[in-house]
Amino acid sequence: MSSPRLDGTGAVAPAVAVLLAAVLLGALVGTWPPFVAVESGSMTPGVERGDLVVVTATDREPWGDLSTAADPDAPTRLGETGDVVVYTVPGAGGRPVFHRLAFPVEAGEDWTERADPELLAADCAELATCPAPYDGYVTRGDANELYDQSAGIAPVVPEEWIAGKALFAVPNLGWIRVGVDAAAARYGGVATGVVLVGGAGLAGGVGALLLGRFRRKGSR
Description:
Number of helices: 4
Helix content: 25-40%
Distance between the termini: 13 Å
Largest sheet: 6 strands, antiparallel
């Protein structure tokens, strides 16, 4: 009895399916990539390290515009009120930050007057980003003891730095992305891509083999 034939189509099918699902999700939420892997515990308990968070564009319908924790009608996102966003500080060379919008500020404002004093390490005169140099947002990780702008994580965050906002989280699924990023940082993107494609092909081949055997047994 001959064994099931493994061709190139069957081997790459899982990888193609995953890519297609990601493209469709990106089209729906208006961001690319359409998800982020949480790499720290700064947003616990609403989001844990290793979770995968689906994000959408900040102006994408039907989720509306940005809301902060200080807004009276703010939606609940990932356990608390206010949108959780992904932002990157230009020129800082760091990874994107995934934190909650605390409250909006205007250019020239001493925003410490409206801040929670327990989340400040200094007054406005001692903070590099106060008064606010432009319109933007004060941000904070839910589990952090200070605002990002008081802890030196980021200056006031203008809207153009924000790549997307969170919709929901899938527990533990982000470990795959964390592992891929770690491998890419250590071995390079090309080598990591070759391993991923090879792994997807191997998984597809094994899956096709098992499925073929299952069908043969069922037809007896």
